[in-house]
Task: structure prediction
Amino acid sequence: MRASDRAYAALRDDIIEWRLRPGTVLPEVEQSERLGVSRTPLREALSRLTAEGLTTTAGGRGVVVTDISLEDIDELFELRETLEGKAAALAAERGDAAVFLQLQRELLEAPALISAIDPARHEYYELVARLDSAIDAAISNSYLAQAMRSLRVHLVRVRRLAADDYARLTAAAAEHAAIAEAIAAGNPRLAQAATTMHLHRSLSHVKATHTPQ
Result:
C-alpha cells in the first residue's frame, strides 16, 4: 500500500470514529510523525479527505476536521433516501433472492448480537454492512454504488452522534430484515417503501439524541 493510501485510511478511520473530533487541526509535521509518512503523501491524503468533505481548509489554521450539524444531517438523509430507495428497488428487480433471504434470516436473529457488548455488537454492524454490499452488487450500477459508498462515510460519523441503545438497534434490525425480505420477494415498490420507513425512523432517532460537538 502506498504511503498516501496508508495515511488516508488511518486519518479517515480516526475521523469517522470520532478519535479526531470536529474542529481538530491536522498540522502536517505532527501528523506526518504520527503516521510515519513524509509530508508529500500526507498532503495527498489530506486532499482526498477534503474532497470527501471530511476535512476542510480553514484560512490560516490549516486543514481541520469538519463538523456535522443538524442541517448537514437533514441534507445527508435527503440524499440517502433518494439513493438508497432507488437502489433497494433495483436490487428487488435484479438481485439473487437466495442471498437476501439468508440476510433476512440473520437480521431477524440480530437482537442476540445487539444485546451483547462488543465485539458481538460489532458483528451486527458487519451484518448491516453485508446487506449494503449485497445491494451494491445486485443493482449492477457502478455509479450508483459508488455514490452510496461515498455517502456512507459520512453516515458512519452521524451514527456515532446517536445513542447506541438496544431499543433503536433492535428496531433497525427488524427494518433491515423487512428491506431484505422485500428485495428477496422481488417487490421493488415494497423494497423502496421499507427503505424509506427505515430512513425516516433513523433520522428521527439521530436528531432526537444528537448532541452538538
User: Anything to note?
Assistant: Residues 59 and 160 are 28 Å apart (CA to CA). Residues 3-65 form a domain with the Arc Repressor Mutant, subunit A fold (CATH 1.10.10.10).
